[in-house]
Each structure stands twice: as C-alpha cells, then as structure tokens.
Amino acid sequence: MDYNTKFTPHTWPDHPEQATMEGKNKVVGFWIFLACEVVLFASLFATYLALKNKGPAGMEFSTQELFELPLAFAMTMLLLTSSLTSVYAIYHMRNFNFKAMQTWLAITLLLGLGFLCLEIYEFYHYVHLGFTFSQSAFSTAFYTLVGTHGAHVTLGLIWFTTLMIRNAKRGLNLYNAPKFFVAALYWHFIDVVWVFIFTVVYLMGVIG
Amino acid sequence: MSSHTQKKSFGASVWDYITTVDHKKLAVMYLLAGTLFFAIAGFEALLMRIQLMKPNNDFISAGFFNELLTMHGTTMLFLAATPLLFAFMNMLVPLQIGARDVAFPFLNSLGFWLFFLGAVFLHLSFFMGGAPDAGWTSYASLSLYSPGHGIDFYVLGLQISGFGTLISGLNFIVTIITMRAPGMTFMRMPLFTWTALVSSALILFAFPPLTVGLVLMLFDRMFGGNFFDHTMGGNTVIWEHLFWIFGHPEVYILVLPAFGLFSEIIPTFSRKRLFGYSSMVFATILIGFLGFMVWAHHMFTTGLGPTANAIFAVATMAIAVPTGMKVFNWILTIWGGSIKVTTPMLYALGFIPSFVAGGVTGVMQASAPLDYQLHDSYFIVAHFHYVIVGGIVTALFGSAHFYWPIFFNRMLDEKLGKWTFWVFFIGFHLTFFVQHFLGLMGMPRRVFTYMEGQGWDQFNYISTVGAAMMGVGVVMMVINCLLSIKRPPAGRDPWGDGRTLEWAIPQPIPFYNFRQTPLVRGLDPYWIEKQEGNKEGMIYAEPLGDIHMPNNSALPFVISLGLFIAAFGALYSPLGVAEDSRTWAIPVLIIGLLITFGAMIVRSVKDDHGFHLHKEEILEIEEQLYGKGGKK
Amino acid sequence: MSHDTPVVAKSQAQYEYDRHHNAVHMRKQVINFAIMIFLTFIAFAVVAADFSPYLIAPFVLLLAGIQVVLQLYAFMHLEDKKTHFGGVIAFFMWFGILLAFTFFLAFLTIVWW
Lengths: 208, 632, 113
Fold this sequence. Notes:
Chain C: Its main location: membrane. Chain C: InterPro entries: Cyt_c_oxidase_su4_prok (IPR005171). The complex is a heterotrimer. Chain A has helices at residues 21-51, 63-66, 69-94, 98-129, 137-167, 177-207. Chain A is mainly α. Chain A has one domain (16-48, 62-207): Up-down Bundle (Four Helix Bundle (Hemerythrin (Met), subunit A)), CATH 1.20.120. In chain A, helix 1 runs parallel beside helix 6. By secondary structure, chain B is mostly helical. Chain B is built from 21 helices and two strands. Chain B is globular. The mean pLDDT of chain B is 92. In chain C, 74% of the residues lie in helices and 0% in strands. Chain C has helices at residues 12-48, 53-75, 86-109. Chain C is flat, with a radius of gyration of 21 Å. Classes of the chains: A mainly alpha, B mainly alpha, C mainly alpha.
C-alpha cells in the first residue's frame, strides 16, 4: 500500500494515526518525548518556586502586587477552550472529515493566538512597571518559566499552521494522520503545563 | 538502488557518511568520534599527571591545569564514554532485537551530528581564548565569575551535544519498545538491550534538568539573568541541585550499558546461559530507579541539614544491593562454566574485582559523616576512576575485542589484546590505587601542585608511572584496531559461541540487516537454533519479500550546523559576562537559528516515504556479498 | 512497514457503529471539558473569595492534579486500550511526574539553609 492511497470514510481505519508502523512509532515516541518535557518543566517550576519573591535588598515587586487574576483567568479560558477545539479536530480526523478538521484547527489556532497576545501584553505591562528580565532573581525565573511555556505555544502555532498549509490540497492520508494527532497531543500538553502555571504561579502567587 | 554495492569515489563516500541514516554506519561514526575525544581527554590526563609527578613542578601553569582538569572530565563523560557506548548501542540493539533499523533513522543521524558539532564547538575553546576552567561540575559560584569565554563554550557546547544525546536516547527507547522481532518479548531481550533501554530512559529523564541548568547558566552568563547571583536574590545551590539531578543518573547512564556488555561477554565465554536473567533485569531497573533518588549525596558538605543527608545516605547505600546482585550473578554464571579466557573474557575477569573496589569506596562515601572527611580529596578521584575505568573503560575495550567482527568483519589480534589488557590493567591499578591513600593523607583534588615533605611525593610518582602505562595500553589498543584492516574476514559467529541474534546474521552485514525478520523462540535465540542443529542459522517469521528502507538525508547535518553557528552568536552576546562582545553577535545568533528551524520546516513539508528494496535486488546484493549460494 | 497495512472497506454496520462510537466519545469529551472549566472556575473563585492561604494552597493544587489527570486520560486518549504500548507510555509519564514531585520537594526544602 502506498502512503498516498486515497481513502473514503468507509475505508478509513478506526485509529488512522496508528495504522502504519511509522504512525505507531511516532505516537509512542512523542509520548516518551512528553515524559521528558514533564521533567524539563518540573526543573523550571522548581527553580521558580525556589526563587519566588527573591530579589536584591529592598525589592518592591512581589507576586501579590504584580499578578492580576482577571488576565490570568482570561488566558486560562482561551487555552482550555483551544484544547477542546483540538479534540474536535481529532474527532473529525477519525471520521475522515478533512474540512471540519481544518476548521477546528483554525479555531484552535486563533484561540492560541489570542492567548499569546495576552501573554505578550502581560510581559509588556510588567516590563513597563520596571519588572524587567534582569531586575531580580524572581523576575528572571518568572520570565524563564512562563516564557518557555510561551515559546512552546508559539512553536505549536507554527506547527499547526505548517501542517494545515502543507496538507490543505491533498486531504487526509495515513502519512499525515499521525502528524495531526501528534500535534494535537502537543497542544494538550501545553495546556497541562498551563494548568500548573496558573495554579502555582498566579493563584498561589496572589495568596502570597 | 543497486548503486550501494559499487565502488565509490572518495567524495561520494564522505557524502554518504554525512547523509547516512543507517544505524551501522552511524555506529562506526560514533566509534571514531568517541575514540578521537577519548584520545584527547587521555592526553589531557597525561599532562596533568606529568605536572603532579613531583612536588612544586612547573611543567604547566595553574590556569592551564584548571582548563585541563575541566576538559578531561567533561570530555571523558560527555564526549568519549557516551558516544563509545552509543556506538555499541547503535550497532547492537537493532541487531539483537531483529529490527531493520532504529525507530527513527533520521533522528539517529541528527543525534550524532548534534553531539559531534557540540563537541567540536567545546574543543574550539582551546584556540579561541581559553577552555572552561571551573571543573566538569562547573559550580555557579565559580563559573559565573570565570573571565573569558571558557564557561560560555562549556554551556553552549554541552547544550548542543546534550540535545543530541537526548534525541538518541529517545530513539533507542522507542526502538526497543516497538521494533522487536516476532517472539522477542521483553523477558527474552538480551541483557545489553535491557541495559540500553534503562540507560536511555535515564537519559530521557536526566538530560532535561541539565538542559535547564545550562539554560539558566546561559542566561546568567550571556543575557543578564540572575539565577545564581546572590546579590540579586539568586541562589547557587540551584545549579548544584540541577547539575547533580542530572549528574548522578549520568553515572548509571554510562555504567549500565557497560554491565550489559559484560552480561553478553561472560555467558558467551562461560558457554552457559546468564545466571539469574530475570533478577538481572530487575536489578537493572532498580538501579535506574534508585539512581534518581540519591543525587544530593554529592552535596553532603553543602549544608543541606542532617535530615536530608541521612535520607540521601540511606538511599545511596540501597543501590549497593541491586549492584551486588549483578556481581553475584556474573560470578555464578562463570561458576561451573566451560570457560575460555579470551581477551574479552580477560577484561570481564579484571572488571569484576576492580568495579567491586570502586563500589565499596562508594558506599564508604555514602555515609555522610565520613564523606565530610573524604570530600574533595584524592579519595574521591580514586573512587570514581575505579568505577569509570574499572567498569566502563574495561567494558569498552573488552567489547571492542568482542564485537569488532560485528563492526568490521575482522577479528582483533588476541595475543596483542592480552598484552594490552595486562599493560592497561596494571597501569590502571598503579595510577588509582595509591590515590586512595593520597586522599586519606589529605591531598585535595584539583590542585595543580603541592609542597614536598607531606609524604605525597612517592605515591604521586607511582600514579604518574601508572598513567603512562595506561597511555601505552591505549596506543597498543589503537594499533591492534589499525592492524585488523590487514586481517582476513571473520565471517559469521567467529567466536563460535555467540548466543544472541547479532551473531546469527551473515557477515558482512547488508544494509537492511536480516533479509527476513527472524522468529525468536526463547532467550539466547541463536544458541537455541545451534543446539537444535539448524544449519541456516535462524528460522524466519516472514517469506522473502520487499523491504522498506528509509532515505538518506543531509538535513540532520544542516540542523546541527545551524545550532553550531547560532552558538557563536550567543557566545559574543553584548550582555555577556565576558565583556568581549561583537557587533555581529545577535545577527549570527538569528541566522543560525533560522538555518536550524528552516531545515526543520523543510523536513516536515517534504514527504519522505523511504524506498522499497525489491526481492530481486536483495538477491543480487546477497550474491555480490556472499557469492553464489553463499559460497564466497 | 507501511506496505503491511491493508486497506479494508468497513461494512455499513461497522461504519455506523464506529461513527456512533466516535460521537458518543466526543460527547464525553465535552462533559470532561465542562468539568475542567468548572474546576478552573472554583479555583479562581476560592482565591478571589480570599479564604485562608492554608486552605487555598492545597485545594487549588488538588484541582490542578484532577485537571491534569483529565487531560491525560480523556483528551490525550491515554485511557484508550487501542493505544500502542499504552501501558509503557503511562509508566513513562507517571515516572516523569514522580520525578517532578521530588524536584518540587527538594527545591522547596533543601535549597535555602
């Protein structure tokens, strides 16, 4: 069988992302990679916790004064919703409905973009207050942790865009189905990390 | 696709090696690169030993001595031992599980090039204003204030080569999980494959903390961060934690595959199945697990408090239990076997007592109160060299002899090999045994010279003589390898006692490995087939048919090259501690990253379906390799 | 290998069954999503309501933990028995999470002295 075999909804396998050996390898490999990312983010979180509110003598910034709940809430909602929309995309991928999948991916992309804009606004705001990257150990740790997450979001957006453009004309096949599936996994993982960021950084920051 | 059997021009061969995704060629590249860096780091060690040969020596300066000790440690662990073990893992794991190649051949090549270019970058420091000089641990309180670019080279070089190691580790995990031949259940895997799996899992979980630690150091050194600067609220202990969370598993990353290699050599030359196979597997996993729970025993004297010290001391001592299980299993495998003392077996026999000695001094240091005495003394140096040289280097030399016919279809010379063993082995014990006493007498490690009249002179002199013998041993080993070019082809199963699948494959190994995927009927499958008088070698799980193989690609090299270029940009960053910035720094950084990400996008946009090798082509290749009817 | 994958046309009954199965599954996902939103809402609410930090901290951490399990097992299909080597994958993920826990513990207790 060739990778470019055309499918119909009736011949499309039940788990298209794992129908080929390459697909199986890709899914297993990507999960293992995510386990590695768990440890990566854990190291960043641990560093942040150790350096939270630490700065030069007389530093005026602290989590309680800096963070605002409404903004964090809006960002959380955007990212959580985008996680659901990517689930919809995979649902349509499994039903061999390419158009619907692309639409839901586009919605995911827009929500992710909205999240990114809010994050950029937030950073801009803090820098404006004088809370720059080099201001204190706390600021460095904060920007590194949240910034690494932001970089992951950016990478995810580029990834989705590339996938959508590349496959716009040719539709679904067993070569690109695992690619869409894995990109969605990545997007969920970004959401998992954000759940911890809004809990550990923002919520627990506001209570001090 | 029959061009692979024709004679190629030199340029075409080089291009072939740059673009190859074949695990066997990459294994050879790892072997060559690892040997190169092993030689460099060994030479650095010799310079240090010459400097310490007599008191108040002025052979090299104090600053250069610091650079040498840093580069010796860093190179040996990251750029010599790791790639040399990867060479064996790359070569053997797919063969031992009966796979065509690793799960992600492209990533395999990417891993190699990232490692190699990162290593080259690190070594450029010698020619570009001085090498790193804060020790291989590069504690932040030292390295933040190191003038010049040495530490920057360390951070960027290790970052790049660390990515390579991480990618390769991930690749091995997936390969071992998903690519096993029919019948090759987890509990039938050869022990080397098991140790490769556990060691790769350790890489997967240990390298991210190192990556984070290096990123934090990168930000502090080059982009105005404050993680470790206490005047800005930072904390240098964070570096110590992150480094040792990585650093301790790193020891097991290296030693577990070495255990695996000996677990292949010992049963082969005892002509007896490995004693306690399942307990060996269990011990391997347990060592891997405990390896993550003990990192703070490197930091007993940091002042973590008695509770933390006690917890980590007990956890550390617990690791001696599974390790002891392994030692007893090896001894019981030899016990009552029909033993052939070949060169690999000689290394195995030398390994057991040497490694036990290193392990016992390790348990001594695990006791926190005693560690306050031993910390930062030559006792530590003696301990870890007993583990690393006595455990890992003997494994590498022994398995180089053992597996040379798999790599190159040639045997190494047994007589020269045995001489090499004795010269190297005696040199090793001369060098490091006396260092235990130097440590107990109070000689601190990492000093470039010492005063006379402290009773250290004699032992230091002996140590240097031993180091020279080790150097001679390595040279003899290399000569042996070079002489093997002239030797006749070894053929299949040249030791006559091969047990596992890699010996069942005909030599020279075609690029698609087994023509048909073998069927595995138990532990030590080739041994089973030989016992049952199977002349063919193996029975197969599929009829002869088309084989799907991956395409070669130059993209891994380009991706790695992009990071290599970007590293120069970061090195001369205008915010750097080194105060030696260049105006082109940021543009170069961006250009490098663009090359990398551009190549990644090309990779994901361009379809890569691989190619099919047809039945007729397979038969044609085999006729060229083995002659008509396999009679060549 | 890709050429080992046969193209099999599903029977009409199988096709409809799969469709239905997918749709039911998707409905469950929407419910999971509703639960997540609800949990998030509570988490923000208790902080906004200004309860004692000793109550809030463990509570929001617990909610975060539940959300992560939901994401992993529902959205990321770790519960799916058809996932290849799902058990091995889950083992790796949970080992990573265990390590994450030890890092937090260490960096909160034995960094400052």
